[in-house]
Amino acid sequence: MNTLDLESFKQARWERNCQLAAVTVLLYEYAITFSDEVQFFWRKRWSFGKLLFLWSRYYSIAFNIGNATVFLQQHPSYDLCNRFFHWQNTGASLQVITTHVILELRLYAMYSSSKRILALFILLMACEITVMGVVFGFPKQGLVGTNNPRPGLYLCADGDPPNHVHWVSYYWTAILIIEGILLSLSLYKAYINHRTGAGGSLMKILTRDSVLYFVFIFWIYCANQIIWLANDLTLNEIGTGFSFCISAILANRLMIAVRSNFYRGHNHAGYGARDIISTVPTLDFNHNETMLTTALTTAVFRPSVHIELESFSETRGF
């Protein structure tokens, strides 16, 4: 067996190990946050936020376990790999869109439910879905999908055509553009809040967590972009497991963090600038009437008002 073959086997082992490691991190994170999931989601009434979290949580687990199971096969058939790549492309797109919906809703809250921001996000989502549909939905001449990337090596491997038409890499390019725009919006809002001193503690948490997410995940997507531009069949999928798992973990953590701070009373949520300019109210979750008095306005939380985070808002999170 020549040196090139030995290197290919080594790369295939790296790829399998990375897929397994990514799923292990995902399952470990699930285990250590399960109690928070029960406390802040399962024990709360059903809402869009709860549905979105549970979908993101359990779909990502099922999707990534399925991916790792296929990559760990020692002798996958061509038919299995062919069917797997169709599933992986669709499944990955669905997970990325789910994650971006979570992030865009957070930014929508950070920008005080601005209609312009909402219109921008709808446009970005439409463009992202279109690019994914074009990249994965139509046959591309020369795209490689095989179970035998090198002589004697069996692994589900895919890649762009060898003539440097990087179709699949456009998928990562689209994600990077979206992530770059969302990161810029987060950084801009963080700068405005810092300069003006606006926003309550929950808003600061939203801004901080969002910026940290975008900075971290941006480089994971960037690494995948570089890998797919290099277009080595036995290395192309080495980073996809981490991109899918880490993005899901961070997005789910963002939702848990907001509810945790809200329900545990660690945050003192301010109200929108149009209602209250300077206040740090304490929300009391009981059946007694809670009074909140500020220099500008007085708000009364009556027993009929059930605070449940059923919508994404600037003061309540998701």
TrEMBL record:
Keywords: Membrane, Transmembrane, Transmembrane helix
Alphabetical list of Pfam families matching this protein: DUF6533 (PF20151)
Protein name as catalogued: DUF6533 domain-containing protein
Lineage, broadest ranks: Eukaryota, Fungi, Dikarya, Basidiomycota, Agaricomycotina
Domain of life: Eukaryota
Statement: the UniProt record of this protein carries the keyword Transmembrane: yes
Domain DUF6533: 18-61
Species per Swiss-Prot/TrEMBL record: Rickenella mellea
Transmembrane intervals: 117-138, 170-191, 211-229, 241-258
InterPro entries: DUF6533
UniProt keyword Protein biosynthesis, yes or no: no
